[in-house]
Fold this sequence. Notes:
Layout: H1 8-16, H2 20-42, H3 45-61, H4 72-91, H5 108-114, H6 122-134, H7 137-148, H8 153-160, H9 164-181, H10 187-198
Helix pairs in contact: 1-2, 2-3, 2-4, 3-4, 4-8, 5-6, 6-10, 7-9, 8-9
Amino acid sequence: MFDRTHGETKLWESFIKGETAAFEEVYRRYYSLLYSYGIRMVGDRELVADTIQNLFVKLILNCRNLHYTDNVKAYLLCSFRNKLLDAFQSLRPMEVIEECHEFFPMGEEIINSLFKKDDVDVKNERRLAKAISRLSGRQREILYLYYVKELSHQEISAILGMNPQSSKNLLSRTLARLREFFFSVSTIWIFSILVHCVHVPVRSVWAFHFS
């Protein structure tokens, strides 16, 4: 019998046993996470919503063949990401998805809306925002997963199809890229501005380093 107070592991066990209440709870618990991630990836609300629906239909129909996992969030994000990339690729068959401008976009209109005109450091803040917009889609994606969604490198590696060390290396290279534009600015100052740029929750400042 499914109990809503159960953690991820118990919830997934109930899901793959075909319990309707577990289907409903997984959908309720993770829909917003998948939707916000999808919108960040491609910005197409209809495509994102359709992909989530298709993902859950497939999971429910094949629930008996699914494997046990102790990290449902990472499993769903990985599955959803793959399906969304496939759907996005079908719309742009001649392009490399992660090199598309539309992949994890951060356009001028977003940058301009991040800061008020009377902010003391508005010039530097916008420079950093523009630096973020110059990152590759994959670099913006790892910033989002690590700082916004606060996922571990173990989880990120599962989602992006790499090992944990590669995830750490990607984040390090991404931060180094930002440092190229702001080599004279302190790490803590950049962290405080990045909070605004990508809506980062207050994760440990000391985790945000450039080594």
